[in-house]
Amino acid sequence: MTDPTAQPAPTGASAFEVQPKKKGLTRRQKRGLSRGVQYAVFVAAVAALAVAADWDRLRNQFARPDIAERMFPEVITLALQNTVLYTVSGFTVGLALGMVIALMRLSSVGPYRWLAGIYIEIFRGLPALLIFIFIGVAVPLAFPGTEIIGGTYGKVALALGLVAAAYMAETIRAGIQAVPKGQMEAARSLGFSPARAMISIIIPQAFRIILPPLTNELVLLFKDSSLVLFLGVTLAERELSKYGRDLASTTANSTPILVAGLCYLLVTIPLGFVVRRMEAKAQEAVK
């Protein structure tokens, strides 16, 4: 006998309790709201600065067209040209010396590794300014009567090269170690000597890996070339920073400083774009 008062068992979808929908924002909506608040705060801060700034004084101090016009074409044909020349010469010296130091770091001979390590630690730890002062003052005192080949250009190339070599050496060493060991073994099996295999097989592959960081080092040297003023330069040897400062002192206006800064950007921004393109291609090659 069945109990006539018993309730029938729930069947189908009614067997499960209907869960109430969660109230509130989803994660995506929260991210969007957070981003919107950040944008609003940023725009408000920029607008507040724009309203509070005295644009007439800024324009008069940093954007005088008559003063900027006086700088051309000498700011390009002299100052920018010297800056590029100092940078390229320093980069060349640094790359050659950095290659030697990197190979010393990888050498099986202990004293070579120790000397390379000491050099890297010293020249990475010292400010570039001290290296320039050392080249301009200490070297002539230590070796009286000796002149560095190239005069000021040679001194700048040596100072920038000594600083850059310490950083480039570590970059080159990392690039060499990133090349698969099988490449050296394959070259040795073909009869290559260790030196020839390193020069012909390993180093070219390493340079493909380290091109982006080396280009970054070129950008840093381009800016560090402004330290040439501590060596004492003639009017014909001035680079962008020195040229801008001299003209700013003469005119009692900061427009030359702004123009010199824009000339730096004419070189550094394209180089930065090249670095990003090379990094993107390297990532695509890995994929």
TrEMBL record:
<feature type="transmembrane region" description="Helical">
    <location>
        <begin position="37"/>
        <end position="55"/>
    </location>
</feature>
<keyword id="KW-0812">Transmembrane</keyword>
<feature type="domain" description="ABC transmembrane type-1">
    <location>
        <begin position="80"/>
        <end position="275"/>
    </location>
</feature>
<comment type="similarity">
    <text>Belongs to the binding-protein-dependent transport system permease family. HisMQ subfamily.</text>
</comment>
<keyword id="KW-0029">Amino-acid transport</keyword>
<feature type="transmembrane region" description="Helical">
    <location>
        <begin position="148"/>
        <end position="169"/>
    </location>
</feature>
<keyword id="KW-0813">Transport</keyword>
<feature type="transmembrane region" description="Helical">
    <location>
        <begin position="190"/>
        <end position="211"/>
    </location>
</feature>
<dbReference type="InterPro" id="IPR035906">
    <property type="entry name" value="MetI-like_sf"/>
</dbReference>
<feature type="region of interest" description="Disordered">
    <location>
        <begin position="1"/>
        <end position="29"/>
    </location>
</feature>
<feature type="transmembrane region" description="Helical">
    <location>
        <begin position="118"/>
        <end position="142"/>
    </location>
</feature>
<protein>
    <submittedName>
        <fullName>Amino acid ABC transporter permease</fullName>
    </submittedName>
</protein>
<dbReference type="Pfam" id="PF00528">
    <property type="entry name" value="BPD_transp_1"/>
</dbReference>
<dbReference type="InterPro" id="IPR043429">
    <property type="entry name" value="ArtM/GltK/GlnP/TcyL/YhdX-like"/>
</dbReference>
<keyword id="KW-0472">Membrane</keyword>
<dbReference type="InterPro" id="IPR010065">
    <property type="entry name" value="AA_ABC_transptr_permease_3TM"/>
</dbReference>
<keyword id="KW-1003">Cell membrane</keyword>
<dbReference type="InterPro" id="IPR000515">
    <property type="entry name" value="MetI-like"/>
</dbReference>
<dbReference type="GO" id="GO:0022857">
    <property type="term" value="F:transmembrane transporter activity"/>
</dbReference>
<dbReference type="GO" id="GO:0006865">
    <property type="term" value="P:amino acid transport"/>
</dbReference>
<feature type="transmembrane region" description="Helical">
    <location>
        <begin position="257"/>
        <end position="275"/>
    </location>
</feature>
<keyword id="KW-1133">Transmembrane helix</keyword>
<feature type="transmembrane region" description="Helical">
    <location>
        <begin position="84"/>
        <end position="106"/>
    </location>
</feature>
<dbReference type="GO" id="GO:0043190">
    <property type="term" value="C:ATP-binding cassette (ABC) transporter complex"/>
</dbReference>
